[in-house]
Specification:
The chain is an all-alpha fold. The chain has two domains: 1-68; 112-155. Helix content is 76%, strand content 0%.
Length: 157
């Protein structure tokens, strides 16, 4: 019985237990052949433990799928094993490039990115948009201070 299972509120289903054991058998750090692999496996094991603790069966399935389709899951040193690892590395790189592209698209939709573009356009036109914006803010502050002073005078403060 694990520490989590001894906690009174933690009652994982049999399918969750089975899935967790399956993941642990595949990714356990003790199975690593070098320090880099051990570190990767330790991080995956931490994720698996958190998913188990949160009874997140979908996350455990995702960890399992990620491991099963990873280059690291291929054992052996022959030409076929090396080819499969290389193909999987290419597939991982393609997925990462796609994710990065989506992140860039999302960032390009932010207000900050739009402001960046406006600053660049203004610079190309020979003006300093940020300095102009700072001047406007200074003017608004001055106006607000004057209004505050007038109100204090009217109220006798």
């Amino acid at each position: 019985m694990t520490y989590l299972e001894s906690a009174k509120d933690f009652k994982p289903s049999d399918s969750l237990k089975k899935l967790y054991r399956q993941v642990a058998k595949l990714i356990h750090p003790d199975l690593a052949t070098d320090d880099n692999e051990r570190l990767r496996r330790q991080n995956l094991m931490i994720e698996a433990n958190l998913a188990y603790e949160n009874q997140d069966e979908e996350r455990l399935k995702a960890i399992l799928h990620g491991w099963e389709t990873s280059p690291e899951s291929i054992q052996g040193e022959g030409v076929v094993a090396k080819l499969i690892r290389t193909i999987r590395q290419i597939a991982q790189s393609q997925m990462r490039l796609k994710a990065i592209g989506e992140e860039i698209e999302a960032l390009e939709q932010t207000d900050l990115y739009q402001l960046r573009n406006q600053v660049i356009t203004a610079q190309e036109a020979g003006s300093d948009l940020l300095a102009e914006m700072a001047l406007q803010v200074d003017e608004q502050i001055t106006t607000a201070k004057e209004q505050l002073k007038e109100l204090k005078t009217k109220l006798g403060l």
